Automatic annotation (TrEMBL):
InterPro entries: Lsm6/sSmF, LSM_dom_sf, Sm, Sm_dom_euk/arc, Sm_F
Main location (coarse class): nucleus
Subunit structure: Component of the heptameric LSM1-LSM7 complex, which consists of LSM1, LSM2, LSM3, LSM4, LSM5, LSM6 and LSM7. Component of the heptameric LSM2-LSM8 complex, which consists of LSM2, LSM3, LSM4, LSM5, LSM6, LSM7 and LSM8. The LSm subunits form a seven-membered ring structure with a doughnut shape.
Native source organism of the sequence: Penicillium concentricum
Pfam families: LSM
Gene Ontology MF term list: RNA binding
Keywords carried by this UniProt record: mRNA processing, mRNA splicing, Nucleus, Ribonucleoprotein, RNA-binding, Spliceosome
Phylogenetic placement of the source organism: Eukaryota, Fungi, Dikarya, Ascomycota, Pezizomycotina
The protein's name in its UniProt record: Sm protein F
Protein family: Belongs to the snRNP Sm proteins family. SmF/LSm6 subfamily.
Domain Sm: 7-80
Cellular component, GO, one term: catalytic step 2 spliceosome
Localisation per UniProt entry: Nucleus
BP term (GO), one: mRNA splicing, via spliceosome
Amino acid sequence: MSFQPLNPRPFLQARVGTEVLIRLKWGQTEYKGTLESIDSYMNVLLRDTQEFIDGKATGALGLVLIRCNNILYMGSADAIEVTDMEYK
């Protein structure tokens, strides 16, 4: 079995215009919004963004820029359901 690395840039570019969920490295903060764009450093621009802390919605933020080194993971929002402290 050999390991085949995957370039994340084409994967992320294919998701522009879709709804994503981003978890930050720091604390229990997550952002859910539509992926507007991603740059060559993999910084992310979200629109219609909602913030979740500890699984609870804290409000709508609108347009948000997230620096790449703050992102723990990013996934499709329809694949992840955010509920109070529980992820399905």
